[in-house]
Specification:
alpha+beta; Immunoglobulin-like; five-stranded antiparallel β-sheet; 11 strands; rod-shaped
Amino acid sequence: MGKIRKPPLPEGMIDSTVFQQRFWAVQRISWIVFTLLLAACLLGFLGRGGLFSRQTLVLPDGSVDFPAISRWNAPEHMVVNFGPSSIDRVFTVDAAFLQTFSVQGVDPPQKTTFARDGRIGYVFPADPAAPTQIVFRLQTELAGPSRATIGIGADTRTQSTFIFP
């Protein structure tokens, strides 16, 4: 069987079948790229919001919810949850954390702050009856990947954050 013959075009018309097929291919590829980009945004791979934009570290005396992916020069927040305790609770961060984020405020405010062994400690009053939630309002300072050590009491963990430029 031979090729199907196309009917002849009227005089003065140009056959643009090849161009049209290339245009459609580029259009389909663009749709796929846009769909993947939209899915990445919705899942939180490109910044705030979404399933993958935050991490939670669980420690014996509480938990810390912090950004895993953020944007440079954008406001962020970190939530520290302390369990009930009859002694003052201490949350610590290292210098690497303070290079990546600047602390704009703490709600409710800390009782006192100290610096020891290259780490900054925030002391919060005890509450033996109920858990306490502390919100740190942050501002991103550096773009790129960063690792920092954060902790509650004597327990510390290393966390990673990527900040898009």
